[in-house]
Amino acid sequence: MTSDERQPRRRLRSLLVDVTPLRASPAFAKLWIGSSVAQIGAQITIVAVGLHVYALTQSTLAVSFVALWALGPMILAGFVGGALADRFDRRRVSLITALIAWSSIGTMTVIAFLGVTVTWPYYLLAAVNAASATILGATRGAILPRLLSPQLLPAAAALSGITMGLAITVGPAVAGVLVASVGFPWTYLLDAVLFTAAFLGILSLPAMVPEGERGRVGLGSVIESLRFLRTAPNVRATFVWDLIAMTLGSPRVVFPAAGALVLGGGPVTVGVLTASFAIGALLSGLFSGPLGAVRRQGRAVTFAIAAFGACTALFGLVLLITGIVGGGRAPESPVIPAIVLGGLALAGTGAADNVSAVFRTTILQTAAPDDVRGRMQGLFYVVVAGGPRVGDLIAGGVATLIALWAPPLLGGLVILGVMLVLARTARGFMRYDALQPTP
To answer: Any long-range contacts for 267-272 (C-beta under 8 Å, 24+ apart)?
Structure first.
């Protein structure tokens, strides 16, 4: 093969996700594989619990309580888990937390096989599982910079994005098939089996005692981390930028009504729209090779979120135009062109969100000192858990007051405008250099 023939192959390889972290660190490779398998199981259970509660109660409100019950424990776990990761051996914290998570899944499996029909045990166990996953994620985020060089962290974050995109795409589909074919108990059992893969990665880790001064776990530790955040503008910006995107750009609450009243197709359309976001995130992860060469990561975060806002606004525009063309009446059959355009717009939001997450994660892992890294990762999970839920509340209110198209269209335009302003005014974050990371 001539050099001219090899050139296109080299260009294609440069676009694909960088798998160097998997070769450079066997411990990271095992942790990533175990986490990838476990996250698919976790998505299966998230969907299965919602379907199970609905089957028991025939109430959409009861299903919403699953997330509501989990929100408080997840936020608390973000703060407490980060403090634990900065105080104790992170390998041991991960192992104990994984055992608690696995036990909650196992207990849910047992009570499902026993035919328990009251809902509160499922709420409780789902909340325990969500809180454990938050602590496990925060601790894992604090571990990665000890396994990989700073130059490989963007590639590691991209690999994590692929994991999440794959889990969100595959998990719900598998859950639906299993619930319909073999029932809830066996569906939960599959998650319990898949979760054992998480132990493979954790057990292969060396001891991970935090470096530097280790404070006590408690309110003082949380206050100390917030005090650090006041003096760390670049780390702080990653949280603020993400909150802007998540609180103003969460159109998922309008999907059911959009499928019923504007786009047609009902639940099938809702599934397509939901999957589109995940597919966009997955594809951006698969073609994330060039991200490792980006030095101005603050600028990359800002423009990725601006693209997220533009794609969100485009989805709102599709709803607006489709509603006008349809005369405001519910369509008798799916409006295929509108569903395709809406799906493409949401795929764009998923891709942009994943790119933003890659760089926000990298900045957090490289700029935050090791002795506060666990707490910063915990706060990251608090933002990730709380931001979209606040966004759902805002979107629901705006849709009720104005129209279904208003939350994505207006929210997306505001996000785009704010990011363009910040690109001109937040000069320190715009100059953030990956080769010289500063908090």
So the answer is: 268/334, 269/334, 269/339, 272/339, 272/343
